[in-house]
## 1
Amino acid sequence: MLILITYDVNTEDAAGRKRLRQVAKRCVNYGQRVQNSVFECLVDPAQYKLLQSGLLEIIDPAKDSLRFYQLGNKYQNKIEHFGVKASYDPEGLLLM
């Protein structure tokens, strides 16, 4: 299933900047950054729960925000992209 993860981490102090880096690093292990604080991740239900619980351990719920959108398995018709940044195929080959 495709999930969309968005986050807003308070970076006013060093601890917040560290949390921001940790959240981004965890997300990049599961998917593709599509905007600064937005990731698309193609995961199975077990991976989704693992990713979600890992991110919830990182953030400070009193200062940060984390949102998960489940687009499901038929996500192709649910995404429209406009603008300069090229879209990608989440099921395609990712080269690093």
## 2
Amino acid sequence: MTYILIVIVALVLLGIVAALSQRHSDDDQVVLADNCATCNGGNDQCEQECMMEAATQPVEYYDDEELDVFAGRSSDAYDDDEAEQFREVLMTLLPSDVKGWNRSLILRGINVPNQVKDELVLLLSES
């Protein structure tokens, strides 16, 4: 009889501890940003959450459908003429669209050519 009482008390205590820890973890939940445009690159978690959210949405194109032929190609596998196609699109973008274009390329499995990466990074840092 004593063993049964000890088991019951232990189960009750375990239940209380589990309930308290669950309530504590609810307080620590991260609230997603209402708008991914507020991610400024300084918060990796915000960027990651926005990328995951973007992955569930249709891919946004920036009048660059011709770049889809490069999906899966390594960044160092482009010749200068192919890299120029990326540069032309990049230079026609509004500064506010550069980050979205980069996300679009990532979601489409397109790696930016090494020849264009420095320009892209510079424009990303300015936006």
